Amino acid sequence: MLKMYVLVREDLDPIYRSVQGTHAVAQFYEKGNDTNWHNETLVQVQVKNKEAIEYWAWKLERKNKKFVPFYEPDLENQLTAIACVDEGNIFKSLQISS
C-alpha cells in the first residue's frame, strides 16, 4: 500500500518541523501528483540534520523514488523536508517524528 512519507530534520524546532513537512506535501501536489496516493496514509519521519536529509535526497534519487524536496527560503534555501510516495520499506530505519 502506498503512503506519503515526509522526512523532516530533527535539528529543527518541533513546530518548525511540522511546518516544513506541510510545505513538502504542498510542494508535492504543486508539482503534480502522478502517483496512486490520494490523501490517504501520511507518515512523518525524522532524520538527524541537514547532512542526513541531503543523503536521503541522494538515496531516493539513486533508487528512482518519486519524491519532492522542500528548500526553506528563511534558512538560506536549506533542504528541510522531503515528501515521498512509496510502500515504505526504504524508510523502516527512520523514527516517527514527534
Please trace the helix and strand order, writing H or E for each element.
EHEHEEE
**How would you state the average pLDDT, rounded?**
91
- The level of helicity is 25-40%
- What amount of the residues lies in strands? 25-35%
Q: Which regions are unreliable across 5 or more consecutive residues at pLDDT < 50?
A: none
- Secondary-structure-derived class: alpha+beta
- Tell me the span between the first and last alpha carbons: 23 Å
Write down the overall geometry.
globular
Q: Count of DSSP E strands? A: 5
CATH class: Alpha Beta
**In terms of quaternary structure, what is this?**
single chain
Major β-sheet, in short?
A: 5 strands, mixed
The CATH superfamily appears as Bit1
The total number of structural domains is 1
- CATH architecture title: 3-Layer(aba) Sandwich
Count of alpha/pi helices = 2
For this structure, the CATH topology is Bit1
What integer value in Å does the Rg equal? 12 Å
Q: Which strand order spans the largest sheet, edge to edge or round the barrel?
A: 3-4-1-2-5
